[in-house]
Design goal:
- This protein is of the alpha/beta class and about 425 residues long.
- The chain has two domains: about 5-105 and about 260-425, FAD/NAD(P)-binding domain; about 135-250, Rossmann fold (3-Layer(aba) Sandwich).
- The protein contains eleven helices and 17 strands.
- It has helices at about 20-30, 65-75, 85-105, 135-145, 160-165, 190-195, 205-215, 230-245, 255-270, 400, 405-425, and strands spanning about 5-15, 35-40, 55, 60, 115-120, 125, 145-150, 175-180, 220-225, 245-250, 275-280, 285-290, 295-300, 300-315, 325, 330, 385-390.
- Strand 9 (about 220-225), helix 8 (about 230-245) and strand 10 form a beta-alpha-beta unit.
- The chain is globular.
- It starts with a strand and ends with a helix.
- The structure holds flavin-adenine dinucleotide.
């Protein structure tokens, strides 16, 4: 059968369906840009749902991320955060979290201080903004409130007892309970399936009844993150009412519900707001020219050719396929862009895995100018219509610095601003 060829023309093509790609789409639509996002499923399902700005510097946990950014610009002038001021990064965070809240998943307002958010292993991590379904957990931990943590037999990677044991010194008022998840007794459990089962109100009362029975005066109840997929705030409020205590979710190990929720919401809501979204497909080849780029994708039934006057690359690192490593070194997979990298494989890693200085490989990536345009070996923009954002950028170590979402959001904001100025002829 002959394959059809579909051609699409757009102003800005965003390649990548991670946080940077979706943030870029939000910023681009807000600027009124004609936008298409081409994204293969990636690391978004791995996130906790927390949006970190800057949690750690020089091995020190930061309470004040904005002051941390000021210090980071001094210490690491090549860091992508150094391309933007705090006012711009704050605006980017606020626009992004407001947009997500408007689309259907409420997030806490980014403030002046980091929050101590809960992880399933019973430790807290510094982050700036959390889903509303998780915010009561931050409060419960901060105040040391009498809290019941519930887990379910058959759910891998979440143990209420481990959570309690690791928090024993800092949160003595924790108690734990293991209950069978109604309707799934004796089965291996998957968070995504449990979350979808709680979408329907009739799925909620049997669970709420079991929790009520073991509450024993707890002011708060913590559950693994399974409170619905499409309307978590509604499920959360309804379960809170049924249980009669403040309720919060704790992220589970990946792939986890909070990231899947975000991805499904973006895929549902952004096309309604004008985005041309081509999900679940990889761009197999791109040609850059003086007037823009042409991106080629192969769908199950048709081929696609997207012509764009500007392109924003947000393809992530190794896990998502934006960067690739082999015996010869590191390369950028789609356009063959130069990758800033250690001088040889022997320098990728330090001898000690936990070396506080981190590993050089983790700071490899694309070099850009102040407009987030990837640079060639001579230091000139590869193409004036090409921009990049997110984890694919060099000179950052988002895992160690606890700045994954912050980097994605801030760089997407900066890259879209520069692309809009170029497209509108004001750059
Ligand atoms: C286990 C884990 C836990 C995390 N926890 C947190 C956390 O608690 N807080 C936090 O702030 N951040 C967290 N992060 C980081 C965060 O999820 C993102 O990884 C980070 O923000 C980078 O986003 P990105 O969009 O740049 O890249 P990615 O999320 O990696 O997305 C890149 C996208 O590009 C797509 N792609 C690649 N090549 C192509 C192509 N040729 N054509 C089309 N699409 C392509 C990929 O499929 C993917 O969709 C976590 C990440 C992981 C892996």
């Amino acid at each position: 059968m002959k394959r059809e060829l579909r051609r699409v023309e757009t102003g800005l093509a965003i390649i990548g369906a991670g946080l940077a790609g979706f943030a870029a789409s939000i910023f681009a639509l807000r600027r009124g840009l004609d936008t298409a996002q081409l994204g293969h499923t990636g690391a978004i399902a791995y996130t906790t749902g927390y949006f970190d700005l800057l949690g750690v510097m020089d091995g020190r946990v930061l309470d004040e991320p904005w002051a941390g950014l000021d210090a980071l610009r001094e210490a690491e002038p090549a860091h992508p955060f150094a391309r933007l001021g705090n006012d711009e990064i704050r605006e980017a965070f606020e626009i992004f979290t407001d947009a997500i809240s408007d689309m259907g998943i409420a997030y806490s307002k980014p403030g002046d201080h980091n929050l101590s958010a809960l992880l399933p292993s019973g430790v807290a991590k510094p982050t700036l903004s959390v889903p509303a379904t998780m915010l009561p957990g931050v409060e419960a931990f901060r105040t040391g409130a009498k809290t019941l943590i519930v887990d379910f037999p058959g759910l891998q990677g979440f143990s209420a007892t481990e959570f309690k044991v690791n928090f024993a010194a800092s949160w003595p008022a924790l108690s734990v309970c293991r209950i069978e998840f109604p309707g799934f007794e004796g089965q291996q459990l998957y968070p995504e399936v449990l979350a979808r089962s709680l979408e329907a109100p009739h799925g909620r009362e049997p669970l709420a009844e079991k929790i009520r029975a073991v509450l024993d005066g707890a002011e708060y109840v913590g559950l693994p993150a399974v409170l619905g997929m499409h309307a978590p705030d509604e499920v959360h409020a309804d379960m809170e009412r049924r249980i009669g205590a403040r309720l919060f979710e704790i992220p589970t190990i990946p792939p986890a519900v909070p990231g899947i929720r975000l991805r499904e919401m973006f895929e549902r809501e952004l096309p309604r707001r004008g985005l041309v979204l081509v999900p679940q497909l990889k761009v197999s080849r791109s040609e850059l020219g003086a007037d823009g780029a042409v991106h080629h994708l192969q769908g199950p039934l048709e081929d696609l050719e997207i012509s764009a006057r500007a392109t924003l690359l947000a393809t992530g690192r190794f896990l998502s396929g934006g960067l690739y490593a082999d015996q010869a070194g590191l390369r950028e997979t789609l356009l063959g862009l130069p990758v800033v990298q250690p001088s040889g494989r022997d320098n990728w890693y330090r001898r000690d895995y936990l070396d506080p200085r981190g590993h050089q490989l983790n700071r490899a990536g694309l070099e850009t100018d102040a407009q987030f345009r990837p640079l060639d070996a001579a230091g000139a923009p590869v193409n004036p219509r090409l921009f990049a954002a997110g984890a694919v950028l060099a000179h950052q170590d988002w895992v160690r610095q606890r700045c994954g979402a912050g980097l994605a959001i801030a760089a997407a904001y900066g890259a879209v601003k520069a692309a809009a100025e170029m497209l509108n002829g004001s750059a």
